[in-house]
Design a protein that fits this description.
Elements (H helix, E strand, L loop, with lengths): L4 H4 L22 E3 L2 H6 L4 E5 L9 H14 L5 E4 L3 H13 L3 E6 L5 H9 L3 E5 L3 H14 L3 E2 L5 H7 L1 H10 L5 E5 L4 H15 L8 E7 L4 H4 L21 H10 L3 E5 L1 H15 L5 H15 L9 E5 L7 H6 L12 H9 L3
Parallel strand pairs: 2-10, 3-4, 3-6, 4-5, 7-8, 7-10, 8-9
Antiparallel strand pairs: 1-2
Helix pairs in contact: 3-4, 3-7, 4-5, 7-9, 8-9, 9-11, 12-13
The protein binds ligand F0G.
The site of ligand F0G has 22 residues, from helix 4, helix 9 and helix 13.
Length: 352
């Protein structure tokens, strides 16, 4: 059972005596060792950090619990965020948990069904805007000031503080830092948070080295790789469909300081990794999450990864968030069969 990150890592977080130690049980997520994918790629020490096992199904809960606890400490009356879906689900859940109304701005038509369902269920005030995530974030920042709401996007420094705890868990589980940390990059808060976490764990002398940070954007939404903002980002991985990341500078710092890289992967590579994770490992993540594995595979092909190294790929959200995409990659249509053993036997023979 997870006590939540505020209780588990209190010494490493910006908490005061007045900060409420709220929790929905976030953190303490599994680090699963790869079986079949590791064998097929010839990299035995491959691990997946299953952040989809957090209470709202993504890593955002780690940052949100910290940001909302701080908002309560400061008597905030309303939360606001822009989101490609997961931030809004987490904000709405922690807002509901603490009885604070939550406003979410989402880019119209670009949020996976499961994430919208969550924001609805948790009772958020959802506004679907005619614009992309970057525009939504711009508006959320202005509204937060004008209407005195607490902005809970990762520009809020408490978000990054909470999210860094995933690095602590990885090191505790492995007994050391991995050699490589592969992670999807959207608004670039999470790569910033992980790097901070590894550095702090080393400063505390729990580990003696830090990993190379390998961040991956989607090819059609790869501003950091291209070196300039992308006006109309495009990718099947809607969670990372972002053209002007807020934490651009700190993501680059993570890459440079760790001797890592930030590269891009195509939608085809993302989908292929998404399928392989589900079918070879039994791990169902969302497409944006699979960018970490697609990127790792690309880096391996380009001989940028030593095969004996330990590698952790962060799987940021659960596949159940985006059921429509899962249906699209079905090998065959869902088959209806008469409820008899004969009919079932015949039907099974036709499936191989
Ligand atoms: N993976 C998932 C599943 C995400 O939801 C996000 C970001 C990322 C990766 C990228 O993380 O932005 O810290 O670089 N989702 C945000 C949202 C933008 O609104 O939910 P990042």
């Amino acid at each position: 059972m997870s006590l939540g990150i505020l209780n588990t890592y209190s010494e490493f977080l910006p908490l005061s005596e007045k900060t409420p130690r709220i929790s929905l049980g976030e953190g303490g997520t599994p680090l699963v060792q790869s079986e079949r994918l590791a064998k097929s790629l010839g990299i035995p020490n491959l691990f997946f950090k299953l952040e989809g096992c957090n209470p709202t199904g993504s890593f955002k809960d780690r940052g949100m619990v910290m940001a909302v606890a701080n908002a309560i400490e400061n008597n905030s009356r309303q939360l606001i965020c822009a989101s490609t879906g997961n931030t809004s689900a987490a904000a709405a859940a922690y807002g509901a948990h603490c009885g604070i109304p939550t406003v979410v701005l989402v880019p119209k038509g670009n949020v996976a069904t499961g994430k919208v369902a969550q924001a609805i269920a948790y009772g958020a005030k959802i506004l679907s805007i005619n614009g992309n995530f970057d525009k939504a974030l711009e508006l959320a920042q202005i509204l937060a000031v004008d209407l005195k709401m607490t902005l809970v996007n990762s520009i809020n420094p408490y978000r990054i503080e909470g999210q860094k705890t995933a690095s602590f868990e990885i090191c505790e589980r492995l007994g050391s830092a991995p050699d490589y940390l592969c992670i999807p990059v959207g608004n670039a808060g999470n790569i910033t948070a992980y790097w901070r976490g590894f550095k702090e764990w080393k400063e505390a002398e729990f580990i003696s080295s830090t990993p190379k940070m390998f961040g991956f954007q989607a090819e059609g939404a790869a501003p950091i790789v291209l070196g300039h903002p992308v006006k109309e980002p495009q990718t099947i991985a809607s969670a990372i469909k972002i053209g002007n990341p807020a934490s651009w500078t700190t993501a680059l710092e993570a890459c440079v300081e760790s001797n890592g890289l930030i590269d891009s992967v195509s939608d085809e590579e993302i989908l292929s990794a998404y399928k392989s994770l589900a079918r070879m490992e039994g791990i169902f993540c969302e497409p944006a999450s699979a960018a970490s594995v697609a990127g790792m595979m690309k880096a391996k092909r380009n001989n940028l990864i030593n095969p004996d190294a330990s590698i952790v790929c962060v799987l940021t959200g659960t596949g159940l968030k985006d059921p429509d995409l899962a249906s699209q990659i079905a090998d065959r249509p869902l088959q209806e069969v008469e409820a008899t053993t004969e009919a079932l036997s015949i039907a099974l023979q036709s499936i191989n």
